[in-house]
Hints:
This protein is α+β, with helices and mostly antiparallel strands. The chain folds into 2 domains: about 1-35, no CATH class; about 35-190, CATH 3.30.1330.50. The chain contains 5 helices and 7 strands. It has helices at about 75-85, 90-95, 105-120, 145-155, 170-175; strands at about 35-45, 50-55, 55-60, 65, 125-135, 160-165, 180-190. β5 (about 125-135), α4 and β6 form a beta-alpha-beta unit. α1 (about 75-85) runs parallel beside α3. The chain is globular and about 50 Å long.
Amino acid sequence: MTEGATSPDSGAGPRGAAAPGWAAAGGATAGGPAFRVGLGYDAHRFVPDRALVLGGVRLREHDGLLGHSDADVLVHALMDALLGAAGLEDIGHYFPDSDPAYAGADSMDLLEAVVTLVSDRGWRVANVDAVVVCEEPRIAPHRAAMRQRLAAALGVGIGAVGLRGTTTEGMGFTGRREGIAAQAVALLERAG
């Protein structure tokens, strides 16, 4: 860290200016930043005997993703992006895979819980953007339904939810059709 700079965890604002409550509120105080950005990533492998759920939309009843919850890789990436932007722990901290309460959980319910955590710290979602990486299924036919479900859970208009699908042209685990990966970015703005 450069001289005169402070970390958000130090209790001081940029350039050492005092910002009471800076760390406690994740920067959502007078004198703290007005916006924060977070990045999330997740990946799950395919298994034959599970339904495939992406973005809160059930795409098929077989060849889904392995995970403790419904393994919605897109929603998990968005959750980590939101938590990161708010300066909070990752989703494993709040929803551990060792807790039977989350076995088979609907990731959309978990996403709503994350939005509440973020809101309780003085932030609201400005917009999110995500990319789903897989050879199949194609994302485009389901994109509108996914954006609608995600927007409702995030408490934003559908225009604030960017979503695309891409392939790796046969390279890596997604290219070999072993699983799906997702990456997401979230922008939070100070509420009120």
